[in-house]
């Protein structure tokens, strides 16, 4: 890359994509200032990127977005689509849970969010225990009576409150039981609560309790007394670890040849309120500093409520201090004996977690080897079945027919090997014709060098689907073990057997084949529904006055289906897509009419 090429980059907020000479995506990143961020990769003394990557970068593509939230959405979509090798991915690309405080409207909701780009607002997390996160959210809502629903405020007032009001989880602003001022105060206090300001919140609740008692409103006073007791129980769980009421995250990482284990100790107002562990691949990362930087960039998103400081123990701190240019916190080494003790605690936790992860990994590998060895013996396969592929098709009355291939590597799903096909056969092809087309296209691609032949191919179906595959193999000159698994009696059809093979329901081999078959079915049905809903969605847009081809394209790119648009606020859609609010209102009214009568039928797979 030449410096003059980088000088042409914009200074706006957006997403940048680093590519090699063949156009392959190497790395995707987001930035408040694209020019400054990309230059930091190339011209800082210590690049945060993996060793050897900069030499491979031949071009930079960029996308300017309206704000940081849109950049987050686009970055996640591009990483999901291209799976760049130099982006640090946490184990299994797991979508960790968050608690999201929405920021729009007079009565913003507080809800569980599985994805960090689930909506605009302030995120707390990520957490690693979904059950505890939901329990904590329930406690939070019971104390501050905040709504967790997605009902738009434009629908207020409703005729009656929902069951959350009866359970004491919501103050029912939807029916006027809670004023805007009271709700907003509770909302702010809830944020303070998650930031560890327990003493301040306890004083506030106690004041409200005595106010209610002085007003002889004893029922309300009892309510506040119960909430105060619940809050005090929470506060006693979190020990005081710093003499000063500071907000600091202590981050440590340990690794072996394959796995990196990150630990984050969250300290708020001097109290240790949480410890989270994250697992990622360590392959290709040369330094601890580079690993930590990429990890910090990934978990400290712009939508987060940040600590004031992040404490790390590294030799070359300047690599991490550059993060202060992009995030509103400072990165420092431990500054006191107390902080050194916390870093030692983080290191101990990381080492123990890594040992446990290594043991779990070895156990999974042994179990997977035994399973696949059993599969090889039961089916009489010529080689060990490391790569197993499953094929299925999905359609609804012959419309929007699709086919998919899913891959399992070493007994677990391998998303890089997933493929989707739009069936191009004219008219209304039958199941056998669609299966034939998908198999021909898939194996021709493999023969051209775009992949490896599977050790076993599984078809969702019976003898007919198996015969189609054998015919395709003869035509293409392919040699590949194949079977068909029929749903009704879970019978396995093999080329060399006249009668199907029946395994007992508790057989691990049968259960593995069912997992492959069910994953192919899920993937096919999901793809089919997206295409069918897009088609129906697009035709409905043409009926609305004020929506031409360009606006139609914008809407289809922003919303996958009818439901997601129906649930969005008109003001948000108008601002986000720059479409007049009256046009959005007409569109939503038309779509809600259609939605009430049903848009999607059932899919067959």
TrEMBL record:
Start and end residues of each UvrC family homology region profile domain: 250-473
UVR domain ranges (all copies): 199-234
Compartments where located: Cytoplasm
SUPFAM superfamilies: C-terminal UvrC-binding domain of UvrB (SSF46600), GIY-YIG endonuclease (SSF82771), RuvA domain 2-like (SSF47781)
GO molecular function: DNA binding; excinuclease ABC activity
Listed GO CC annotations: cytoplasm; excinuclease repair complex
Keyword annotations: Cytoplasm, DNA damage, DNA excision, DNA repair, Excision nuclease, SOS response
Biological processes per GO annotation: nucleotide-excision repair; SOS response
Domain of life: Bacteria
Function: The UvrABC repair system catalyzes the recognition and processing of DNA lesions. UvrC both incises the 5' and 3' sides of the lesion. The N-terminal half is responsible for the 3' incision and the C-terminal half is responsible for the 5' incision.
Protein name: UvrABC system protein C
Organism lineage string: Bacteria, Pseudomonadati, Atribacterota, Atribacteria, Atribacterales
Gene transcribed to yield this protein: uvrC
């Amino acid at each position: 890359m030449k410096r003059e090429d980088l000088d042409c980059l914009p200074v706006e907020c957006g997403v940048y994509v680093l590519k090699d000479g063949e156009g392959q995506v190497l790395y995707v990143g987001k930035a408040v200032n694209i020019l400054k961020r990309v230059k930091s990769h190339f011209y800082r003394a210590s690049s945060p990127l993996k060793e050897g990557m900069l030499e491979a970068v031949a071009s930079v593509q960029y996308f300017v977005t309206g704000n940081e939230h849109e950049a987050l959405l686009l970055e996640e979509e591009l990483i999901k689509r291209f799976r760049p090798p130099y982006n640090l991915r946490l184990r299994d690309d797991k979508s960790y849970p968050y608690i999201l405080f929405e920021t729009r409207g007079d009565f913003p909701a507080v809800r569980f969010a599985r994805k960090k780009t689930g909506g605009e607002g302030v995120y707390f997390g990520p957490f690693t225990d979904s059950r505890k996160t939901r329990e904590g959210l329930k406690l939070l809502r019971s104390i501050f009576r905040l709504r967790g629903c997605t009902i738009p405020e434009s629908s207020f007032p409703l005729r009656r409150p929902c069951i959350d009001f009866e359970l004491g989880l919501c103050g029912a602003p939807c029916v006027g039981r809670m004023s805007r001022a009271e709700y907003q105060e509770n909302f702010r206090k809830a944020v303070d609560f998650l930031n560890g300001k327990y003493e301040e919140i306890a004083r506030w609740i106690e004041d409200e309790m005595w106010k209610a008692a002085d007003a002889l409103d004893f029922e309300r006073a009892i309510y506040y007394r119960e909430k105060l007791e619940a809050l005090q129980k929470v506060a006693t769980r979190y020990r005081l670890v710093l003499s000063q009421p500071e907000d600091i995250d202590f981050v440590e990482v340990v690794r072996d040849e394959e796995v990196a284990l990150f630990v984050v100790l969250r300290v708020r107002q001097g109290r240790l309120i949480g410890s989270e562990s994250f697992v990622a691949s360590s392959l290709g990362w040369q330094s601890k500093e580079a690993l930590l930087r990429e990890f910090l960039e990934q978990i400290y998103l712009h939508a987060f409520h940040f600590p004031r400081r992040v404490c790390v123990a590294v030799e070359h701190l300047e690599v991490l201090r550059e993060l202060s240019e992009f995030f509103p916190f400072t990165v420092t080494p431990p500054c006191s004996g107390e902080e050194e003790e916390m870093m030692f605690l983080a290191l101990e936790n990381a080492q123990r977690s890594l040992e446990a992860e290594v043991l779990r990994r070895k156990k999974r590998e042994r179990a997977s080897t035994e399973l696949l060895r059993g599969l090889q013996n039961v089916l009489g396969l010529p080689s060990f079945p490391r790569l197993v592929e499953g094929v299925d098709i999905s359609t609804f009355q012959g419309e929007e027919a699709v086919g998919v291939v899913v891959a399992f590597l070493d007994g677990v799903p391998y998303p890089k090997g997933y493929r989707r096909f739009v069936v191009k056969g004219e008219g209304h092809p039958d199941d056998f014709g669609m299966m034939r087309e998908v198999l021909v296209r898939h194996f021709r691609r493999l023969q051209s060098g775009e992949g490896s032949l599977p050790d076993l191919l599984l078809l969702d179906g019976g003898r007919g689907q198996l015969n189609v595959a054998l015919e395709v193999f003869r035509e293409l000159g392919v040699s590949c073990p194949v079977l068909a698994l029929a749903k009704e009696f879970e019978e396995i059809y093999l080329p060399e057997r006249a009668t199907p093979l029946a395994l007992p329901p508790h057989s691990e081999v049968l259960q593995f084949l069912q997992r492959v078959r069910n994953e192919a079915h899920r993937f096919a049905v999901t793809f089919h529904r997206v295409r069918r809903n897009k088609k129906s969605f697009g035709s409905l847009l043409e009926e609305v006055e004020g929506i031409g081809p360009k606006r139609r394209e914008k809407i289809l790119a922003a919303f996958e289906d009818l439901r997601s648009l129906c649930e969005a606020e008109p003001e948000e859609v108008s601002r986000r897509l720059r479409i007049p609010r009256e046009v959005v209102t007409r569109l939503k009214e038309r779509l809600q009419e259609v939605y009430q009568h049903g848009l999607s039928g059932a899919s067959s797979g």
